[in-house]
Amino acid sequence: MNFGGRVFEPSPFFCQTTLRIAAKASMNRTDDPITDPLRLKALRSLSLVDSPAEESFDRITRLAARLLKCPASVVTLIEEDRQFFKSCVGLPEPLATLRGSPLSHSFCKLTVRAGKRFLIQDARVDPRVVSHPAIEEYGIVSYAGFPIRTRSGEVLGTLCVVDVVPREWTEDELETLRELSASVESEIELIAAAERERDHARMFQTMIQASPLSVIVIDTDGRVELWNDASEAIFGWTSAEVLGYPLPIISEHKLDECQRICDAVGDGSVFRCVDTYRAKGEDANGEKRTVHVNVSAVSLHRHDGYSDRILLIIDDVSQSHAGTLERERLFRELKIEKALLSEMDERKDRFLALLAHELRNPLTPIGNAVDLLRFAAEDPGQVHEISTVLDSQVRQLVRLIDDLMDVSRITRGRIGLQRETVSIHEVVANSCRAVDSLCSEMGHELIRRSDPEESLFVYGDYVRLTQVVTNLLNNACKYTPRNGRIEISCGHSKGQVQITVKDNGVGIPPEHRTGIFEMFTQVEDTLKDSRGGLGIGLTLVKQLIELHDGKVLLMDTDGASTGSEFQIHLPRLDSKPKEEKTVAEEEGPKRRYRVLVVDDVPAIAKMFTMLVGAMGHEVNSASSAPEGIERARELQPDIVFSDICMPGMDGYELARRFRSLSELDSSMLIAMTGNGQPEDIRMAMEAGFDRHITKPASVQRLREIFQELESRRGVE
């Protein structure tokens, strides 16, 4: 057939689709994009397939063919088993008349599956399409296509051009085609917007007619423009009787009612009243029938802001005025519920922001400890003290991150405690270290009063209790003017451990004391004296202490004194627990193992290899999964610790290949990653890992892993 002056065999061609929204989403999507239900739903919702030709699309395809000097240009929409040509220029018969074809001869499926522009310079030698039937049957040699997407990212089809001779597509040509494809998307969006408008209009009309309330629209002269079925049921007049006429429900003695309503809503406010209005016919006593109704009126504005109509919403309350009161009550409750939901959402966002801020608190003593290690290398006692501080702060960071990953559990008050025997002296000491820099910055004197020989132990969560005391100290620092005094003391009385935090700051006025533990509460008169905060700290203090079966109190102060005093009471353990062995006192390994660490982050790999080496094992490392496999085959390690999220080959693929090598059957494979959700653990086990550890791994957890390996093989 003659195709734009060139010989072209009849051929169905063009376009198949794919759904490519974002990298994350596409990783989880395994089905063929052509049959993707979301894409097909988006396509069918526009009613474009099998629709008549439209000049707006034809202009674009004509322009594409002319500007790129190609014999044919097509806008193609893809269904599951065929392609429809929304617009086509230069297509031979019967394709031009049929405006579609099966997908078997489509080049556009390559564009769609690629998710970006797809180019063919010479199909006869291009290995991607060299055996494509359209080359032999219809002589297509060169092709350029761009995917067409909806505003939400769903791919509907393509805009493409073809030629029967080889073409080297220039960047100018491709930019032109890209711009034209954007124009096609704009036209489709206009169609989608028009369809949405029609849907809204139909929905609006359906809602009005189905509404049990009378819906009436009148102009400023009182003539009726809208009268729904409920209006007829309430007042008795049909639409034919009232449309275009003055509102009939106004009785003779209230002829100024329309003007009164117009005046009332003239400034954009809503007019409401409960009153008696006229209905058609007579009642049982021969009097003109009336109905008692609840009326709401609002002015309707045109696009230029001018008000020329009034909307009336009318509810018949003749049978029971009490029903009206009930509806008003429900309406108020709905508004309250909406406000509560809005407040809860705001609380969630603010709580997330607070947690992000709280993550920075442990970093101060960690940074100081790192700097101090440079000066304390020759002092084992000081190094041990520093390591204790680092351990406690890292534990606090890990717990805070865990909470941040599951914020819904926190906002619902479902915080789980990791209970152990806790020294209150250690909690207080750690909390004081956490606020030391803030106290120094503000010039505060931090006084700690306690008897170190006094047995003060509780059964609780060390990190949470430290968080509680730190919050109270932080509050004292923030609301105490510079060069103030903050006291913290601990003791016991009547089976309770008591922690007291007292300051000489601005204090809390009596009118604000009752709500001080509520979420996001801050005393307005003292905000100027504080150092910020979201007003959530005391709420957390109260919730966490109550989870420990304790209580927190704001103590009364006399009128002459300033400052605040908080007391925490917790159940006390009767006896002091046994001393645990320190890291230095722990027994060394019963056997020296060969260990391989695979991690693409050099700092993590280095510190972890140093830690395992310090435990007495022979350690090697690899910076990528392929290198890790090669090193494993070379070293025959007893145990391999591998990260999961690595570029190129990830840890899951490493595990699968690792398990395919018979020479590594005896090696233990451990996934060590920052992803610790149940789904992450399941995927690690399915890939071939023996165990899953969430970073950072503690020395105790590593010892458990090596002990498990020893139990497998037996101690030599």
TrEMBL record:
Residues 594-710 form the Response regulatory domain. Keywords: Kinase, Membrane, Phosphoprotein, Transferase, Two-component regulatory system. Its EC number is 2.7.13.3. The modification 4-aspartylphosphate is found at D643. It comes from Rhodopirellula bahusiensis. GO terms for biological process: regulation of DNA-templated transcription. Gene3D superfamilies: 1.10.287.130, 3.30.450.40, 3.40.50.2300, Histidine kinase-like ATPase, C-terminal domain, PAS domain. Residues 354-574 form the Histidine kinase domain. It catalyses: ATP + protein L-histidine = ADP + protein N-phospho-L-histidine. InterPro entries: CheY-like_superfamily, GAF, GAF-like_dom_sf, HATPase_C_sf, HATPase_dom, His_kinase_dom, HisK_dim/P_dom, HisK_dim/P_sf. Residues 200-244 form the PAS domain. SMART domains: GAF, HATPase_c, HisKA, PAS, REC. Signal peptide: none annotated. Pfam families: GAF, HATPase_c, HisKA, PAS, Response_reg. This is histidine kinase. It is an enzyme of class 2 (transferase).
